[in-house]
Structure formats: C-alpha cells, structure tokens
Write a structure and sequence with these properties.
2 domains
C-alpha cells in the first residue's frame, strides 16, 4: 500500500455507504482471491478497544464460495484469550491503482471488501465486522498481494477496520488489524519506518512484541521472540524457554492453555550461540530451531511431540540461515569469502520422511560469483559450468534463483 495508508484512505475515511458498489476493474468471476486474503498472516497486527489491547488474527482457511464471497475460518487472540471464529468476506469493488506509487512495473489494483467473523468458542465471544482493503497484482493469471515495497517506510497492506460486538452484552469495541501497520491505532504506533508500540501500552498484550525488538537482555529477547513466533492457536504446539545460565539450553514444554505445561525435552547449546527459531513450511510461523555455531538443525514432529535433529544438515559447509524460495521449492544459504572476495550460494531440498524424525536437508549444489564471473558445482563438488559471464548460462534452477533474488 502507499506509504502511511494513503491508498487505503479512500476506504477508511469515507462513510461506509460511500464505498463504490459493483465496480470491478478486474472480473472476480475470472480469478480466485484466496491467496490475497491468506497473505501476510505472520505480519498481522491488531488492536481491540480504545485502550489498544493487542489483537492477533490467524486464518486457518479461506474458501471461495461464489465469485465475490469467501468463507473464512481462523482464530482470534485478544491479549491471550484465544477463540475460534468463522464467517464471510465479500468483495465489494476492485479499482485500478497507479503503479508508480508502488515502484511497480505491472498493473496494481485495490480490492475493497466487507467481512463478518463470528467467534464460536472460548470465553467472552463476539463478532468482528467491518471493511477491508488489499493492494494486489496479477502474476501468471493469479492474484498476488502487492508487497514490492515490503520493508519500505510506512508499508502496509491487508487493512481491516471495524468493530467487535459482544454476543452477551452487545457492547461494541473498535477492532482493527493489518499487515505491518494498524489503521486507527493513534498514539500506540510510535514507529516511523515500521510499527513500534508505545511502551505505555506494554501491559495491553504488547510486552513480548516490545521485548523482542528492544530488550537488551539476551534471555528476555530470545524468549519474547519464541513466544512471538509460536503457533498460539495450536493447542499441541510446543512452548520453548531459553535459559542462558548456568549452561545455555532450550527447554521444550507441552502447552497448558497459553502457558507451559510438562517438560518434553532439553536441547543443549554452545555457550556462544543464540538460537534461531524459523519457518519450516512457509506458513509464517516457526517450527525449526537452527543453531549455526553448533551446526545443528532441529525440526518439530507434531506426531511425536518433540524436536528431532536433521543429521544430513550437520555436514553442510557454510550453513548460514536458510531462506526458502517457494517458486523453486528449495532452500538457500549465502556466504561471502573475504579471502577470495567471492560470493557463494548453496542450495538444499527438504526431503520429508514418513515422520519428522526421518526428514533431512539434502544438499544439491552451489554456485560462486566474483566480478561478474559465475561457476556452478554439483553436490559432490564437481564443476558443472566454469567461469561463465552470465547467470543465464548456469543450470535453469540457478538462473531462476539469481533472477528471483537479484531481479536480473
């Protein structure tokens, strides 16, 4: 979206009755917008009430029912009170945007929608309702969220503005959420380039978010990150607790509500390393613990309820932090060698076993680049392409990787 909600202003600051009806620059009968509505899940930030209590929203599924109506199932989390919900999201209109506002070389569109999500379990339940706006583009005949400016100052998308109404008391509270920024968040958001909650609202559910960014205490910051990146809606997801002294460990507990229950296992760490907890299946939430100093990778097994070490990963040189390219269905790491002044790129495939205990990270080869000259090597270290002057002369998957990564 345009910086500081300028794109969404048409939707958010006009009376709801003024929103255009039935105007479609893109025919909704032709396209399925499920991917647009499901996007940005891990980056959704929200507020409930005038006191800006933290609100988290997770979509478990979005299903197209008609060209303009979609069924949504998911979970809400209001400062620790988790409730399942389901309801509908209806497309109201689709209009054309100016691509220059997004630094884009493709057409960009703005989708307006209305929604109503009813909580179906838990305590103090109610209904979320209001209007939403999404910037998107179309790639290979598929609508995609427009995130080309993700990370830029003021970036936001998937903006929801409305109310939560109590089933019991009929009391109505402001309930807004969105990707990276929150509409109508007032003095809660003190950030310029990105969302930063004001410390005075820490007690309203923002303590972990604040500590994950600003805490100078390593143990406090790591544990805040663990909680921020956990699957809070999943009753079987583990609770991780990092202890730095007397010896650094990660204790893995069963979940008891939103708190820790019985101890499952303990993972030992090297004294010098800080654990990383990252996304396994690209749903935006974390299932893998990576210990780069120790050369270990642990993946969570939902079946067994414990972490397993992925042994094949132990033998990979220059592991770095894995990044996933869904277009290629591969993971990659990068390394810059100061002695040779060359860049190295390594490719892996995650091979699933019958269970996580049999999964493996399979190394598939590498490429190097120095002064615009490229070489490619297979998984055994044998040269595939030697000193070519363009990544287009490498194997197709490497050419695609460089194109996707460096926009060549």
């Amino acid at each position: 979206m345009k910086k500081f909600f300028s794109t969404l202003a048409i939707l958010l600051f006009l009376p709801l009755s003024a929103i255009s009806q039935g105007k479609f620059a893109v025919n909704p009968e032709r396209y399925d917008f499920t991917g647009v509505f499901m996007a940005d899940s891990p980056f959704r930030l929200g507020i409930l009430g005038k006191e800006y209590k933290r609100l988290q929203i997770y979509y478990e599924s979005v299903t197209r029912q008609t060209p303009t109506a979609y069924t949504v199932k998911g979970y809400s989390n209001a400062a620790g009170n988790v409730c399942p919900f389901e309801g509908t999201l209806n497309i109201v209109s689709i209009t054309t945007q100016n691509p220059e506002d997004f630094d884009a070389d493709h057409n960009v569109y703005f989708l307006e929608a209305s929604y109503s999500f009813k909580e179906t379990g838990g305590t103090g339940i109610g209904t979320f309702s209001g209007k939403a706006g999404f910037d998107f583009w179309i790639s290979d005949n598929k609508p995609m969220i427009e995130d080309g400016m993700f990370g830029a100052d003021g970036y936001c998308n998937s903006q929801y503005e409305g109310f939560w109404t109590s089933d019991k008391t009929k009391v109505k509270k402001i309930a807004n959420w969105g990707s990276c920024r929150i509409p109508g968040s007032g003095d809660l958001d003190q950030g310029v380039g990105e969302f930063v909650p004001d410390e005075k609202y820490r007690s309203k559910g923002w303590a972990d978010y604040f500590n994950a960014i600003f805490s100078q205490n390593e143990e406090v910051q790591v544990n805040a990150n663990f909680r921020e990146q956990s699957k809070w809606w999943d009753k079987k997801a583990p609770v991780l607790v990092y202890k730095k002294a007397p010896k650094p460990v990660i204790n893995v507990y069963k979940k008891n509500g939103q708190a820790q229950g019985a101890l499952i296992q303990t993972l030992s760490l090297k004294v010098s390393e800080t654990p990383e907890y990252w996304d396994f299946n690209e749903d935006g939430y974390k299932e893998i613990i990576q210990l780069c100093d120790d050369g270990k990778l642990y993946v969570w097994s939902p079946k067994d309820g414990k972490f397993y070490n992925v042994p094949s990963y132990d033998f990979v040189k220059y592991k770095g932090y894995l990044t996933y390219k869904p277009e290629l269905q591969r993971y990659f790491t990068t390394h810059y060698d100061n002695s040779t002044q060359a860049h190295y790129f390594y490719m892996y495939r995650y091979r699933r076993g019958t269970d996580s205990s049999q999964d493996a990270i399979v190394y598939e080869g590498s490429i190097s680049e120095k002064d615009g000259i490229w070489s490619e090597y297979d998984k055994y270290g044998q040269t595939v392409h030697d000193k070519v002057n363009s990544p287009e002369k490498l194997s197709q998957i490497w050419s695609d990787y460089i194109r996707l990564t460096m926009a060549l």
